[in-house]
From TrEMBL:
Protein name per Swiss-Prot or TrEMBL: Dipeptidyl-peptidase
Pfam family, one: Peptidase_S46
Matches recorded under SUPFAM superfamilies: Trypsin-like serine proteases
EC assignment: 3.4.14.-
Length: 723
């Protein structure tokens, strides 16, 4: 789906929040900000005997399944064939995680990785400059020497998964809610530090099943990633915002990058091969990737908070930011190029937020969530032993949401970083790293633990360009939001603004800061507290005078909201596991999952939607005017392409943000497509899956291969992936 990148509003404000920052090196965002899951196979829980008739889940293509709990029998029953353990083991090292919030697949023995165009758009934009716009013109390295290093990119290949439930559980056993987050954070930091053996290793402790299970994911980490091919945005995002989350689609949303190590392409024994024919009607197909976050076991109280407080606020801010970026882009061609990189994310985020809000506002949809929660609570009440163990965590979580409403505005304005600025997060990281790294590893904020430092340094010392004028406008927007939300008399606002107006202060901070210089950032980072305290950089001083206010509201959140939700969420998970047994999957947590389904359309306004489009339909849709203007390269290739070649297709797979770039594979394990989006009905997928009309949207392998040859002349890539 089109909400993948680290700078995107969707990722930072919803995905990372829901994941609690456990899988990503970013500060926690506005809550609900804890990892959630669909069930909890914790050590204190056990499934009821069969004669107890546990609750049953509906049979459908629902689920983002971990490889160790994949429902092979269920898939075979629904689709006539189910993957074996050996099949699942083979795909594990071939499916990679892109740290900006996407997925990818290894497709050659020389480290070639396929993902979506919108998953490399940041890299493409960073490599572009005035007079050389790779976003508009596209990019293709005809030789290895022409492959360009992405300034700020990381790809992780899963090496192992280890259960650490008992160790984390022991650290938090009997701990008060106010201390729960600190104790859990210390345990996770210790485990990750033991696992992380160097810059080329990444280790993340992930909470699954509402904290009923904790797993240590160990990755091989690649930070030398080079761009090989990226089509023009006009082809990758043909139809633009009007077509986004809709179908039929005609997008060539694919790009290729390469993994390097020691300045040489990485040799990869495990790789996917391509199917020239693509998916077959009536046969099972699978998507393997890293869905970022779902909230399907959120309690009703948490969903009400999302619906009534958080999502409306996000819609408003994103809409204001969109208006600012459009106005900024009207200055000149260069301003438009710079603004469009962010505008893509923001407009996408608005659609996502609105879709989620509409789902939670739908009486039938929300009514089912209420009904499901009541059924689970009734199940607990009817089992005295379970009732004694679980108690009433729903009420405790509801009380925490009341507390969250009290601090939400302050948390959102002071602690979160959701306005796309580059300089402000850099300054905060430098200030906080200096403070946190002076503490024992177990006592630090999660994003500054020893295991997270390699990724943090990669971000701090990125060579990505920073644009002063846009930075000033983004920082000004942030300050305006803060003053408007908290009021000019709020102490935190006074600490931030003093007697300055937002516009004046933002301009002065960006004009005066030296943080655009990587050498300055390195000196401040390596100099620690002493260097930060002596720094006269205005942006560093700004963060220093405002950080106490941000830390204060974060502390309240961790003790009175996050701790309560996490501790009681584990109890909800135990109840869910007792009721449903092992028939459920954990909520998405940016970890490797497999979903299953088939090629299929749906009914829209009384008409059946054909699940496949073709090249001919794209040319019929072409108008020559944005967003339906094809790039010249595609217009010139019209006579070469087979008009009947399948282009995009819809399928019944259960996916979410983070699945962008995931390969679609058949039962032979061959790539038949690459996911790039969902339909409009998929936007409520964060909270539930509707088999009637929830669809994934992918680029067909036949179109992918044919265009590489006849449009881009990418003979080098074709030869490599066909070896």
């Amino acid at each position: 789906m089109r909400f993948p990148r680290r700078t995107s509003l969707f990722v930072t404000a919803v995905v990372s929040a829901a994941c609690g920052g456990e899988a990503a090196n970013v500060p926690p965002e506005p809550p609900p900000a804890t990892a959630t899951a669909a069930s909890a196979p914790g050590p204190a829980a056990s499934a009821p005997k069969k004669e107890e008739a546990p609750l049953q889940l509906a049979e459908s293509d629902e689920g983002m399944w971990t490889l160790d709990r994949f429902p092979t029998e269920r898939v075979a029953k629904l689709h006539g064939w189910g993957p074996t353990k050996e099949w699942l083991d083979r795909i594990r090292p071939r499916a990679v995680k892109i740290a900006l919030g996407c997925s990818g697949s290894i497709v050659s023995g020389s480290g070639l990785v396929m993902t979506n165009h919108h998953c490399v758009a940041d890299c493409v934009g960073q490599l572009s400059k005035k007079g050389r716009d790779y976003i508009a013109q596209g990019f293709y390295a005809k030789t290895e020497a022409e492959e360009l290093k992405c300034p700020d990119y990381e790809i992780d290949q899963l090496a192992s998964v280890t259960d650490v439930t008992s160790r984390v559980g022991e650290a938090t056993k009997g701990v008060a809610e106010s201390e729960f987050v600190a104790k859990q954070r210390a345990a996770m930091a210790a485990i990750e530090k033991e696992c992380t053996t160097g810059e080329g290793v990444r280790c993340d402790v992930i909470s699954l099943y509402n904290g009923g299970q904790y797993q240590l994911y160990k990755y091989r980490r690649f930070t030398d990633v080079r761009l090989v091919l990226a089509p023009e945005r006009g082809a990758a995002f043909f139809g633009g915002d009007p077509d986004n989350f809709n179908f039929p689609r005609y997008d060539y949303d694919v790009s290729f990058v390469r993994l390097y190590d020691g300045n040489k392409p990485v040799k990869t024994e495990e790789r996917f091969r391509f199917s020239a024919t693509g998916p077959k009607q009536g046969e099972p197909i699978f998507i393997t990737g890293h869905p970022y976050s779902t909230q399907r076991l959120y309690t009703v109280a948490r969903l009400e908070f999302l619906r009534d407080v958080e999502l409306p606020d996000k819609i408003r801010q994103a809409s204001e930011l969109r208006a600012m970026l459009i106005e900024f882009g009207k200055r000149n061609a260069e301003s438009k190029r710079i603004a469009d990189i962010l505008l893509f994310d923001v407009e996408n985020g608005i659609k996502v937020y609105n879709g989620q809000f509409e789902a939670l506002s739908d009486k039938e949809f929300f009514g089912k969530k209420v009904k499901d929660e009541q059924a689970l609570r009734n199940y607990v009440a009817s089992h005295p032993d379970l009732q004694k163990t679980v108690g009433d965590p729903w009420e405790a979580i509801a009380r925490a949401q009341v507390e969250m409403r009290n601090i939400f505005v302050s948390y959102r304005m002071l602690e979160s970083m959701t306005n796309h600025s580059t300089l402000l997060p850099l300054a905060r990281h430098l200030v906080r790293a200096a403070e946190e790294m002076s503490k024992p590893n177990a006592e630090r904020l999660r994003e500054y633990s020893d295991a997270k430092l390699p990724a943090l340094k990669e971000e701090l010392f990125s060579t990505a360009p920073i644009y002063d004028e846009l930075e000033s406008r983004l920082l000004e927007q942030k300050l305006l939001w803060m003053r408007g939300a908290l009021g000019p008399d709020d102490p935190a606002v006074q600490h931030a603004l003093g007697k300055d107006a937002p516009e004046q202060l933002a301009a002065a901070l960006v004009r005066g800061t030296k943080l655009k210089d990587i050498k300055v950032r390195k000196a401040l980072f390596e100099g620690g507290k002493a260097a930060i305290e002596k720094s006269t950089d205005p942006l560093i001083q700004f963060v220093r005078r405002t950080d106490a206010d941000a830390r204060a509201v974060r502390k309240i959140y961790e003790e009175k909201v996050e701790g309560v939700v996490k501790k009681n969420g584990e109890l909800v998970g135990r109840a869910h596991f007792a009721a449903y047994g092992q028939t459920t999957y954990p909520d998405a947590t940016a970890t490797l999952r497999v979903s299953f389904g088939e090629l299929k359309g749906w009914e829209e306004r009384g008409k059946l939607v054909n699940p496949i489009t073709n090249f001919g339909g794209m040319y019929e849709r072409q108008t020559g005017k944005d967003p339906f203007a094809l790039p010249k390269r595609w217009l010139d290739a019209k006579g070469k392409l087979n008009a009947s070649t399948p282009f995009n297709f819809s399928s019944t797979h259960d996916i979410i943000g983070g699945n962008s770039g995931s390969p679609v594979i058949d039962k032979q394990g061959e790539i038949v497509g690459i996911v790039f989006d969902g339909n409009i009905h998929s936007l409520g997928g964060a909270y539930g899956y509707d088999p009637k009309n929830n669809r994934a949207v992918s680029l067909h392998s036949a179109a992918l291969l044919e265009a590489l040859d006849k449009v881009y002349g990418a003979s080098r890539i074709l030869a490599e992936i066909k070896q």
